Amino acid sequence: MASLGNGLLQMCSRIRYYVAQARGAAIGENKAYDLLVAGGGNAALCAALTAREAGASVLVLEHAPPALRGGNSRHTRNLRVMHEKPTATLTGSYTEAEYWADLLGVTKGKTDERLARVVIRGTSGILPWMEARGVRFQPSLHGTLSLSRTNAFFLGGGKALLNAYYDVAKRMGIDVAYCTEVRSLALEDGRVREVEIESAGSKETLRPKAVVVSSGGFQANIEWLREYWGDAADNFVVRGTPYAQGRVLRNLLDQGVAPVGDPTQFHAIAVDARAPKFDGGIVTRLDCVPFGIVVDHEAKRFYDEGEDLWPKRYAAWGRLLAQRPQQIAYAIMDNKAEKLFMPSVFPAVVAESVAGLAKALGLDPGALETTVREFNQAVRRGVFDSGALDGCRTEGIDPPKTHWARRIDEPPFLGYPLRPGITFTYLGVKVDENARVLLEDGQPCGNLFAAGEIMAGNILGQGYVAGTGMAIGTVFGRIAGREAAKIARH
Ligand SMILES: Cc1cc2nc3c(=O)[nH]c(=O)nc-3n(C[C@H](O)[C@H](O)[C@H](O)COP(=O)(O)OP(=O)(O)OC[C@H]3O[C@@H](n4cnc5c(N)ncnc54)[C@H](O)[C@@H]3O)c2cc1C
User: Fold this and answer.
1) What is the pLDDT of residue 301?
2) How many angstroms separate the alpha carbon of residue 174 from the centre of ligand 1?
């Protein structure tokens, strides 16, 4: 964060000044807000809008400046939606039973069924609520992980969604303090007594009636990640916001809020190793894994690349890479695979021979040739279908490739260097179905609510199925806003 630099600090100072001027008060001067919302992403805005619509006065505290507002949410493209029949942009139906089965499958039972069903049911009928607040949808594009039935895509992506929500927030009189970090919440007798914030170097204390924490995970805090991952954490690429430092999360856990989730669990995928350390977003993702093989730094395969359909398995690859020596691997394929996936923003490394590709990637040519030859010999012919669990598999090789196995023999050969790209961490605060934050003794805090990544671990104990991050944030954001407004009214 030090690298944000003086220029940004000055910009923040100016923005804070304008925000304060626009409201006719310094942030701390008006301490009469009913609700403070920590964070400025999807969960925060859903909470803020809902609470304001229910009559509460709301101040959103966003650590980022306006251009970088919206955390990880600004990188998103879709959310997973339960629906009984086709909508304008979704095909077929996606029932509660199927949604739940998908979630159960990826989490392997590490999920709170009650809260998971709150999310699933909450997504039913959510699209009109979002549309009424300016969000527009589009059918999924060809090649987007076969999600046309299950996931509603935002026209213009997460940034357009957030811009729409911020516009409505402004019209409704919700105040937003940018470049303002929530430093700590003082909990006393199960209630938030006050909130300490810092903006452009000066600290202030606010005393709202209720607080919603929606400040994301701690995935951008490399020091914290090092507690569990050691030196490997230095090689992680953080796909989203650098502001996900986990300050609020740690502060609450230190004060006896009940933790949820395994601190080593996170959503992480394979990204192009050439991606920037932070905020590379969606364009650094590599979807090519099922269509070739993946080898480690010794040019050896280490996992079944064709285990399941991509939406259900893509999130396993970040963790697999994080556990490899040096956290580096290489996707290797041939000309047949080139058009089957959305490429990353970086071009593939291309060569006319497997040995040439190995050299270009910095791998041992002989070792890669051996791996490819053994793989090719193990491939059993079947009818290839990139969109379904097909019959193309290997035999007599360890690890096997159970679907989409085709010989890698048609030049040019393509390669991509891969690194673990961490999306968000699963350690969070425990909540109940009303988004109330629970203390270690099981009692709910009186005026503290949580939504989004900071509580996603209640539902995602491990694994991930595409579009649940935004589903959790939207549903629990609305619940948190509704419940916080009730406190404000009474
Ligand atoms: C590249 C990428 C693509 C993704 N695509 C999808 C997708 O298509 N569908 C999907 O469902 N999920 C997707 N996700 C996951 C999704 O982004 C998250 O699950 C979701 O956006 C979480 O929303 P949130 O509001 O909880 O957190 P965020 O959107 O990250 O918001 C957290 C906010 O808190 C602020 N903040 C942090 N600490 C403080 C503090 N101390 N004080 C004040 N503010 C603070 C941050 O600046 C930020 O504004 C994607 C994530 C990434 C990185």
Assistant:
1) 98
2) 20
Counting Cα atoms < 13 Å in the Cβ hemisphere of 140 gives 20
The answer to whether the beta carbons of residues 375 and 400 sit under 8 Å apart is no
In the prediction, which pLDDT does 11 show? 54
The helix or strand, by DSSP H or E, that contains position 448, with its residue range, turns out to be strand 444-450
Select 268-422's CATH number: 3.40.640.10, 3.10.28.10, 3.90.700.10, 3.30.300.30.
3.90.700.10
324: amino acid identity, one letter: R
Model confidence, pTM: 0.90
> Domain extents for the chain?
15-261+427-489, 268-422
* Distance between CA atoms of residues 94 and 74, nearest Å: 26
Q: Measured in angstroms, how far is the CA atom of residue 70 from the centroid of ligand 1? A: 7
Question: Ligand 1: residues whose CB is within 6 Å?
Answer: 38-44, 61-64, 70-73, 75-79, 181-182, 214-216, 239-241, 243-245, 247-248, 281-282, 423-424, 452-453, 467-470, 473
Distance 78 CA to ligand 1 centre (A): 13
Cα angle at 395 between 391 and 401, to 5 degrees? Answer: 60
**Mutual orientation of helices 96-107 and 113-123 as an angle, nearest 10°?**
140
Q: Which residue has the tokens 């929500």?
A: 165
Taking the centre of ligand 1 as the mean of its atom positions, its distance from the CA of residue 423, in whole angstroms, is: 9
Q: What is the CATH number of domain 15-261+427-489?
A: 3.50.50.60
Residue pair 372/307 in contact (Cβ under 8 Å)? The answer is no
Side chain identity, residue 371: T
Cβ-based neighbour number of residue 192 at 10 Å: 25
Q: Identify the segments of the chain with pLDDT beneath 70.
A: 1-31, 142-146, 311-312
Query: What pLDDT shows up at residue 29?
Result: 59
In Å, how far from its chain's centre is CA 472? 11
> Fold identical between 15-261+427-489 and 268-422?
no
Supply the pLDDT for residue 342: 83
Asked, as a colleague might, if the bond just before 412 is cis with ω within 30 of 0, I would say: yes
User: Would you list the DSSP string of 79-95?
Assistant: EE--BSS--SS--S-B-
Residues 423/319, Cβ–Cβ less than 8 Å: no
